């Protein structure tokens, strides 16, 4: 079949999501008629300033914080870096986990090279950090605890509120990377008890290249970028106005979705039900299993291993048939490496490499799941038949 | 697709023939892995799997409008190519990693992936030809039209199954013709220079690579491992004339860097794995008439029962020499072959391949175990 004519179904929404049409509509004028620099004193500046501040309020509403506590960034990586480098100084101790996103893990690795101490907490077989471990890891010089809200690969939701309590009792800053959680589950910074929280626009139908960091009032945050006094001197640089407006709209749509459901698109309950049915059907294939079983999970993510296959080959085979999914993390060349998250959960290396992540977005429909289920079982069977490690007798069983 | 001219042109040729083409690049080795180790350059210098090459391959795929993926085979590459490469040198042999890569990665792992994703064949930029011979009922591997680019020496390990699923579209072309075609299709890599060195060894300095790799593996503290494989330098008549710092520094036929001064030029005649002795002698002592090849793969014939007259190539840049091949005898393994040359050959090197030719047809080949006068 000619590749361009093929039906394509996208089940990789934890990588990125399509911008919703109403988000795009909101952004469009800011590439044209509303072009002002939000710092300018004249009419054009005032116009965009107002839009930036409205967007800030929408993000604050999504997170349950004050608008003044929202710092716009270029996305998740910048937010996580700003949180980590913004509060930790040489000689400080940081507590994090082995399943964090590289934007946190590699920032901590850099800190360690610069004279900080870092504790990487393990997770259990379900992918959960034990809050008691956090407590035990505390030291007199602990400055920051950074544990993610929800994992990008498994969707497992960490006990962040419990960790927040421990951090508050110890008077230690608590940052949580909520990039995957935002827009998928309700977030309330006060209920979590965090001082810093990262979100990224493109993970919940906003544009790429924009995000926000929640910074609790009173947090001593040193900026990474120096320049003008933008973002209350916490992040210099002319605002990405179209992006910020888009992020604001995406936040607004997400909040509305939690409040009253969303009739036009897949709401969170429906998404969980659709995900569950996909999961149930896939687990009927022999020698498969769910990664993160028994843990609370995001409603949109499922991560499944198919013994005897290379996830890489399955991903390519499915992509060639029009289904986009993902596995592990891509290295610089685009090749796939076994997931550090799954191996941290104790998965055997071959099983980690045999795992595939399916993640849904609001644009998905039930038919997309049918399409996926029409492809995956036969593709897995073909891969196994050609696999040098799969016992041939098991195929016919 | 390596990002080079040959494989890129293959992709273009097949695409314009109307074939359904999928581009694959194998990620085999992380160039940054040994950077800064034990005398290795801090910056990345090697060619293998560099980001630039992947970028080039991706650009070509995009130009041609074909799907393109990078597949990670680093673990297999280390196990089946890099480690044996290191171990062969430490055992006093001179390995050919390219043949190991062809046998274990390109025509094994990659072929499996290709079949798994629904492809019937894999096509590569090797200069060689595959044809099916109805009478013999076998797939044959033949030398290419451009004899100066002949890569059949590295492909002797291909099985019938592998050959039946392999395409070598450049087999009938010369290198200038390939470049011309690349230009015609506006491929960005049309003027890219050919790669020559072992892809994972930066700058071709294999000794430094060995040292860095072993230090990284923690098998020997940096800078000390050659003491373990150091030994005596002896003449062919058994006289000790000096010491050497490790058998990996030598290859049969080597003249430079022996570290001993005598009146007449000396050459490495033999490297004794068991005693770690490097045997040196005169040029005429380098010649041998017979060799024993192990793990022989036969291509144009299913088995070798009778002695057979062929021409045998003992290194990539060797002119095939007339010889008789025959089973190595009762006491040897079934896949061992004895090669007896019409004329003694210079510097038959254990670890290299002996590849048997009948004209342009590759009869088969194996790994050189030893040679005898």
Count, helices of chain A: 15
Assembly annotation: heterodimer
CATH superfamily of the largest domain in chain B: HUPs
CATH level-3 fold name of the largest domain in chain A: Aspartate Aminotransferase, domain 2
What is the helix content of chain B?
25-40%
Which CATH first-tier class of the largest domain in chain A would you pick? Alpha Beta
- Uncertain stretches of 5 or more adjacent residues of chain A: none
Greatest interface: A-B, 21 and 20 residues
CATH architectural arrangement of the largest domain in chain B: 3-Layer(aba) Sandwich
Arrangement of strands in the largest sheet of chain B: 11-14-13-12-15-16
Number of domains of chain A: 2
**Low-confidence sequence ranges of chain B:** none
By secondary-structure content and strand pairing, the structural class of chain A works out as alpha/beta
Average pLDDT metric of chain A: 94
């Amino acid at each position: 079949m000619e590749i361009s004519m093929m039906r394509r179904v996208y089940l990789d929404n934890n990588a990125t999501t399509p911008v919703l049409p109403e988000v795009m509509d909101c952004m469009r004028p800011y590439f044209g008629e509303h072009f002002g620099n939000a710092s300018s004193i004249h009419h054009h500046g005032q116009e965009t300033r107002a839009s930036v501040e409205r967007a800030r309020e929408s993000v604050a509403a999504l997170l349950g914080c004050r608008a003044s506590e929202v710092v716009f960034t270029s996305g998740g990586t910048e937010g996580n870096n700003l949180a980590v480098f913004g509060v930790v100084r040489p000689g400080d101790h940081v507590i994090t986990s082995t399943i964090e996103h590289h934007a946190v893990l590699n920032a901590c690795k850099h800190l360690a090279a610069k004279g900080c101490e870092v504790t990487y907490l393990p997770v259990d077989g379900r992918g959960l950090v034990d809050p008691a471990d956090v407590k035990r890891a505390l030291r007199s010089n602990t400055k920051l605890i950074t544990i993610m809200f929800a994992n990008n690969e498994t969707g497992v939701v960490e006990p962040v509120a419990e960790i927040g309590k421990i951090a508050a009792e110890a008077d230690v800053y608590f940052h949580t990377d909520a990039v995957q959680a935002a827009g998928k589950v309700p977030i309330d910074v006060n209920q979590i008890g965090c001082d810093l929280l990262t979100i990224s626009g493109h993970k919940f139908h906003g544009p790429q290249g924009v995000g926000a960091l929640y910074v609790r009032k009173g947090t001593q945050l040193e900026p990474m970028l120096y320049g003008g006094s933008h973002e209350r001197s916490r992040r210099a640089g002319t605002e990405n106005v179209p992006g910020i407006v888009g992020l604001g709209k995406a936040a607004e749509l997400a909040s509305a979705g939690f409040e009253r459901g969303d009739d036009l698109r897949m709401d969170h309950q429906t998404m969980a039900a659709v995900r569950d049915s996909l999961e149930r059907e896939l687990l009927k294939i022999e020698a498969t299993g769910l990664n993160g079983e028994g843990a609370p999970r995001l409603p949109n993510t499922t991560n499944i291993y198919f013994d005897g296959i290379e996830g890489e080959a399955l991903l390519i085979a499915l992509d060639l048939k029009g289904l986009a999914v993902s596995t592990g993390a891509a290295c610089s060349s685009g090749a796939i490496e076994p997931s550090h998250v799954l191996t941290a959960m104790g998965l055997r290396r071959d099983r980690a490499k045999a795992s595939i992540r399916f993640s849904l977005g609001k644009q998905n429909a039930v038919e997309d799941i049918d399409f996926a289920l029409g492809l995956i079982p036969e593709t897995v069977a073909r891969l196994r038949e050609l696999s040098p490690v799969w016992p041939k007798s098991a195929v016919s069983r | 697709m390596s990002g080079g001219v040959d494989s890129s042109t293959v992709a273009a040729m097949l695409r314009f023939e109307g074939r359904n083409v999928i581009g694959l690049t194998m990620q085999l080795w992380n160039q940054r892995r040994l950077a800064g180790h034990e005398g290795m350059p801090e910056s990345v210098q090697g060619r293998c799997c560099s980001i630039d090459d992947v970028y080039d391959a991706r650009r070509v795929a995009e130009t041609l409008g074909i799907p393109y993926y990078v597949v990670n085979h680093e673990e297999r590459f280390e196990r089946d190519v890099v480690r044996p490469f290191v171990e062969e040198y430490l055992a006093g042999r001179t390995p050919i990693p390219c043949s190991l890569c062809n046998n274990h990665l390109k025509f094994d792992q990659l072929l499996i992936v290709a079949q798994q994703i629904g492809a019937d064949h894999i096509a590569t930029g090797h200069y060689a030809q595959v044809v099916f011979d109805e009478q013999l009922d076998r797939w044959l591997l033949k030398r290419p039209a451009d004899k100066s680019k002949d890569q059949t020496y590295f492909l002797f390990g291909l099985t019938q199954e592998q050959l039946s699923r392999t395409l070598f579209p450049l087999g009938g072309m010369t290198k200038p013709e390939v470049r011309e075609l690349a230009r015609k299709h506006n491929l960005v890599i049309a003027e890219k220079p050919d790669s020559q060195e072992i892809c994972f060894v930066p700058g071709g300095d294999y000794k430094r690579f060995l040292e860095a790799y072993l230090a990284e593996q923690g098998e020997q503290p940096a800078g000390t491992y050659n003491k373990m494989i150091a030994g005596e330098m002896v003449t062919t008549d058994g006289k000790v004339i000096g010491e050497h710092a490790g058998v990996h520094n030598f290859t049969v036929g080597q003249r430079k860097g022996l570290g001993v001064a005598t009146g007449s030029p000396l050459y490495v005649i033999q490297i004794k794995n068991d005693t770690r002795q490097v045997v040196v002698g005169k040029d005429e002592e380098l010649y041998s008439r017979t060799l024993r090849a192990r793990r022989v793969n036969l291509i144009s014939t299913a088995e070798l029962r009778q002695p057979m007259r062929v021409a045998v190539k003992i290194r990539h840049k060797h002119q095939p020499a007339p010889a008789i091949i025959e089973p190595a005898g009762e006491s040897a393994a079934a896949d061992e072959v004895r090669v007896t040359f019409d004329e003694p050959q210079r510097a038959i090197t254990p670890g290299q391949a002996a590849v048997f030719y009948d004209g342009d047809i590759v009869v088969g080949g194996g790994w050189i175990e030893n040679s005898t006068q």
